[in-house]
């Protein structure tokens, strides 16, 4: 397990990919070519749901990503912050904790 994590980390930063001026279509085109900036970025291509977004973002001038990103930021800003016992710590983010 340790060596697998170390391998993933050593692959983390790719010198062949840069952000340039920001997250524009070049960034997403790099993901399509297997040249993600971080290992976690490249993992977006591992699932059909996120890979389809990468393909869409790679095919325009970046306006689709900027629109989706701004909508997501507004949505997140409207979430209430849970503190102390109001919230929960999840082992798997996609699965809620069932307290019995």
TrEMBL record:
<dbReference type="GO" id="GO:0006979">
    <property type="term" value="P:response to oxidative stress"/>
</dbReference>
<dbReference type="GO" id="GO:0046872">
    <property type="term" value="F:metal ion binding"/>
</dbReference>
<keyword id="KW-0106">Calcium</keyword>
<keyword id="KW-0479">Metal-binding</keyword>
<dbReference type="InterPro" id="IPR002016">
    <property type="entry name" value="Haem_peroxidase"/>
</dbReference>
<keyword id="KW-0349">Heme</keyword>
<feature type="binding site">
    <location>
        <position position="24"/>
    </location>
    <ligand>
        <name>Ca(2+)</name>
    </ligand>
</feature>
<feature type="domain" description="Plant heme peroxidase family profile">
    <location>
        <begin position="23"/>
        <end position="97"/>
    </location>
</feature>
<dbReference type="InterPro" id="IPR010255">
    <property type="entry name" value="Haem_peroxidase_sf"/>
</dbReference>
<dbReference type="GO" id="GO:0140825">
    <property type="term" value="F:lactoperoxidase activity"/>
</dbReference>
<dbReference type="InterPro" id="IPR000823">
    <property type="entry name" value="Peroxidase_pln"/>
</dbReference>
<keyword id="KW-0560">Oxidoreductase</keyword>
<dbReference type="Pfam" id="PF00141">
    <property type="entry name" value="peroxidase"/>
</dbReference>
<dbReference type="GO" id="GO:0020037">
    <property type="term" value="F:heme binding"/>
</dbReference>
<comment type="similarity">
    <text>Belongs to the peroxidase family.</text>
</comment>
<keyword id="KW-0408">Iron</keyword>
<protein>
    <recommendedName>
        <fullName>peroxidase</fullName>
        <ecNumber>1.11.1.7</ecNumber>
    </recommendedName>
</protein>
<keyword id="KW-0575">Peroxidase</keyword>
């Amino acid at each position: 397990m340790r060596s697998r994590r170390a391998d993933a980390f050593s692959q983390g930063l790719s010198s062949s990919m840069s952000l340039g001026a920001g997250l524009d279509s070049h960034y997403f085109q790099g993901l399509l070519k297997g040249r993600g900036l971080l290992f976690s970025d490249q993992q977006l291509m591992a699932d059909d749901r996120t890979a389809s977004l990468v393909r869409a973002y790679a095919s325009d001038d970046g306006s689709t990503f900027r629109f989706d990103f701004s909508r997501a930021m507004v949505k997140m800003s409207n979430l209430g912050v849970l503190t102390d016992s109001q919230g929960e710590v999840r082992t798997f983010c996609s699965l809620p904790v069932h307290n019995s």
